[in-house]
Amino acid sequence: MNRILCLLGALSFSGIGLFNTKTAFADVSLDEAAQQVRQNRQLRVLGAKTERIDGKQVHVIRVLTPNGRVQHLRVNAETGHIQESSGQN
Fold first, then answer.
1. Residues in Cβ contact with 43 at an 8 Å cutoff, skipping those fewer than 6 apart
2. Do the domain assignments include residue 7?
3. Could you tell me the pTM of the whole model?
């Protein structure tokens, strides 16, 4: 039993592991995504949440534009790429 546990531990530390932790955690956190939108786009962030869209983790950032409109921006949680959402309120 101890040999099996040691083998599983060695595999997980070697990068060959049975558990893929990269998909479990985002490379860009929700706070980082909101800060990126706030700084790069100079928009006021009203709220933020993380959703799974088309099998990918996406941060949805709700912002107030300079003309007073509310807009939702999508930030890819793996790459940090910002996309404007088609729907505006």
1. 37, 63, 64, 65, 66, 71
2. no
3. 0.65
Number of domains into which the chain is organized:
1
For residue 49, what are its two tokens?
A: 């949440």
Per the structure, the complete domain to which residue 80 belongs is given by 22-88
The encoded tokens of residue 85 equal: 């959402």
E-only strand ranges, 41-81: 44-53, 56-64, 70-76
* pLDDT tens digits, one per residue of 22-67: 444 569 999 999 999 999 888 899 999 999 999 999 999 999 999 9
Q: What angle do CA 7, 19, 28 make, to 5 degrees?
A: 140
d(CA 3, CA 21): 23
Contact 48, 33 (CB under 8 A): yes
